[in-house]
Design goal:
290 residues, alpha+beta, Cathepsin B, Chain A, six-stranded antiparallel β-sheet, two-stranded antiparallel ribbon, 8 strands, 54% helix, rod-shaped
């Protein structure tokens, strides 16, 4: 019996040894495989990181090259590039045509994609009551704001002129071109081609407490009103200020000539104009006061 027990005991020991061997071998294999997988993963991660860094460096280099090229380009080359980019990106026709009408609009057009959906400014800069500020319809603070089926920069000369007059006479800094454009749209002051009706000029000012009458466009009358601090909005046809139709504001007299705030051009706004030259291009004039 003892012999048999010894034999069984010996067999159990051998089984245990074999089990321990297999377990040890399995653990070693798992360790080797795990280590290999970890090394492989780290290698792949390192490779991906290197590729990402290389891609970032290429993109950075390409961006720097573009910026350098843009920095070195002439005004004519920049204008051509911005116009080509705008066409390729599918910008509205009216936005692209701004470049042909006035090269001053180049920043506005170039920034169109980035800023077109941003909210318009709710206030103007500080305004001194009695002084008519120059507001530009393609100013990026409100130029992208809607006006009818277009935007203020393209079709909003009327609301921008009214904003100048309302803000200047009342000191109301909330009378922005975007706000006047919204008022005009909501109250149907546009035709099917997005042109501003003349009645907007005679009626919209009342909402800001302004008095208005349509002038007979004589030089003596206009000069007298301007000297009294009463701005005059003009509807003008083709000529110095537009190829089609446009609104401008007469804001004062200097050296017997007229100071004009043209919402589409800083250049024409920096000049003094003979009354007769303006009158020849004018279709109607409205005088404002409070």
């Amino acid at each position: 019996m003892d012999k048999k027990r010894k034999i069984r005991k010996s067999k159990r020991k051998q089984q245990v040894k074999r089990q321990l061997y297999f377990i040890t071998a399995a653990v070693i294999c798992v360790g080797i495989i795990s280590t290999a997988l970890i090394l492989r993963t780290r290698k792949e991660e390192a490779k991906e990181a290197a590729a990402k860094i290389e891609q970032q460096n290429r993109e950075k280099s390409a961006k720097e090259n573009i910026e350098q090229e843009e920095k070195n380009e002439t005004p004519e080359e920049r204008l051509a590039r911005v116009k080509e980019d705008a066409g390729r990106k599918g910008y509205p026709k009216g936005v692209i045509e701004l470049l042909d009408k006035n090269e001053e609009t180049i920043d506005f057009v170039e920034d169109y994609e980035e800023k077109k959906d941003l909210p318009a400014a709710e206030t103007l800069d500080a305004v001194t009551q009695g002084e008519i500020p120059l507001l530009i319809q393609w100013d990026e603070r409100w130029g992208y704001a809607p006006y009818g089926n277009s935007i203020v920069a393209v079709s909003g000369c009327g609301p921008t002129c009214m904003a100048m007059v309302a803000a200047g006479l009342t000191g109301d800094v909330t009378a922005t071109p975007a706000k006047l454009a919204a008022y005009g749209t909501e109250n149907g002051y546009l035709d099917e081609e997005n042109n501003t009706y003349w009645k907007f000029m005679s009626e919209a000012g009342k909402n800001w407490g302004l008095s208005c009458y349509e002038s007979d466009m004589t030089q003596a009358q206009i000069m007298s009103e301007l000297q009294a601090g009463h701005p005059v909005i003009c509807s003008v046809g083709p000529g110095d200020f537009t190829q089609n139709g446009h609104f401008i504001v007469l804001v004062g007299c200097e050296e017997g000539k007229i100071k004009v705030n043209d919402p589409f051009s800083r250049t024409t706004s920096s000049q003094l104009w003979d009354f007769e030259r303006i009158k020849q291009q004018s279709k109607a004039m409205w005088v404002y006061s409070i």
